[in-house]
Design brief:
six-stranded mixed β-sheet, elongated, 13 strands, alpha/beta, Serine Threonine Protein Phosphatase 5, Tetratricopeptide repeat, 343 residues, 9 helices
Length: 343
């Protein structure tokens, strides 16, 4: 069962994802649950359409300075201009259509900025309003600056090769990997309130196997675009929920007359048929020994949490311990109580 939505501000009650139930030869299995954490930044109410603009471009009269910078940093001349658009594409692909959020490319999607790492002044608010109005957008996300460079990484194997003559003098390893770095600065403008919703400078990097000789090791052709794309995805992730994973144990085996019923119920849970599994565990309760009943109650608690019913899960966990003495039920009840306090 999968739920995907933006978390309302101040609320962390959404259960996001149920992963795989693992089984083996042990008496217990487990299920992984992903719980949401609040986004780093909340979009204001009413922001549902975001226009994307690239302002990192260099004015023609400033290109001479960029030539020198490209030589010094190892950047391929002109590549930043092309790769910066990939950052916007990364934003577009990750956020567009995500629970009612739409990213749009306005008619005026490129603007001149500093062309360097120097952050430009804020855009004129009338220009912000005009760009948003042209695409019926509620906010304007601007890639203010974009800069890249690359550096060589030594191989982790053999980076202390000794000389063949036995003098134990380390010989530098031949670089065989290239790390591409992208530095971006983003601003999200609100044309109505004339405020900056968010701004961030971020560095992203990816590592690639180099191409060429040891004297001239270069990143592969797709390296810069891939890194730029990931930089855009990383930035817009600030507005999306993050998750942490928890593991819940449940019993897959019982004893005596309930043995086969436990196995059948666990098989149902392995294919996410939690309703079917709960029906089997409920039937066990009516005829099982105290020990098996405690196990069935614990499994009922897990199933209810998987389905998003925290209160019912807590009731079943308490019953597992209070009525049948199952210690795992006690521990589980305490976990659920703590979770409810956090919510």
């Amino acid at each position: 069962m999968i739920y995907l939505r933006l978390i309302p501000k101040g609320s962390l009650v959404c259960l996001l994802l149920v992963c795989l139930v693992f089984s083996g030869c042990s008496k217990k299995g487990y299920v992984n649950l992903d719980y949401p954490l609040a986004p780093e930044v909340y979009l204001p109410d009413g922001v549902r359409k975001i226009a994307l603009v690239n302002r990192s471009l260099t004015r023609p009269e400033h290109k001479q300075g960029k030539v020198l910078e490209a030589i010094v940093t190892g950047e391929i001349l002109g590549s930043d201009r092309l790769a910066s658009d990939e950052s916007l594409k990364g934003v577009f692909d990750r956020i567009n259509g995500y629970i009612g959020i739409q990213a749009v490319i306005p008619p005026q999607t490129r603007l001149y900025g500093t062309g360097t790492r120097e952050t430009p002044e804020l855009l004129d608010w009338q220009l912000v309003r005009d760009i948003c109005a042209a695409s019926n957008a509620d906010a304007l996300l601007v890639l203010e600056t974009f800069d890249s460079n690359s550096d060589l990484l030594l191989s982790t194997v053999g980076n202390r090769v000794t000389a063949a003559l036995g003098n134990n003098v380390p010989i530098p390893a031949v670089p065989n990997q290239v790390r591409v770095n992208v530095l971006t600065f983003w601003r999200l403008y609100d044309p109505v309130s004339k405020t900056i919703i968010d701004q961030q400078q971020a560095r992203s990097f990816l590592t690639f196997n180099g191409v060429g000789s040891s004297n001239l090791m270069l990143p592969p052709p797709e390296a810069l675009h891939s890194t730029a794309y990931e930089a855009g995805r990383n930035y817009i992730g600030r507005f999306l929920p993050r998750y942490y994973t928890v593991k819940r144990e449940l019993y897959k085996k019982g004893k005596g007359s309930s043995k086969q019923a436990f196995r059948a119920a666990f098989r149902s849970s392995e294919v996410a048929n939690w309703q079917g599994a709960m029906e089997s565990w409920s039937a066990i309760l009516n005829q099982a020994s105290r020990k098996n009943a405690g196990k069935a109650c614990l499994n009922m608690a897990v199933a209810h949490e998987v389905l998003g019913n925290t209160d019912q899960a807590l009731q079943w966990a308490k019953k597992s311990y209070e009525v049948y003495g199952n210690k795992l039920g006690r521990d589980y009840a305490n976990i659920l109580l703590n979770r409810k306090r956090l919510e």
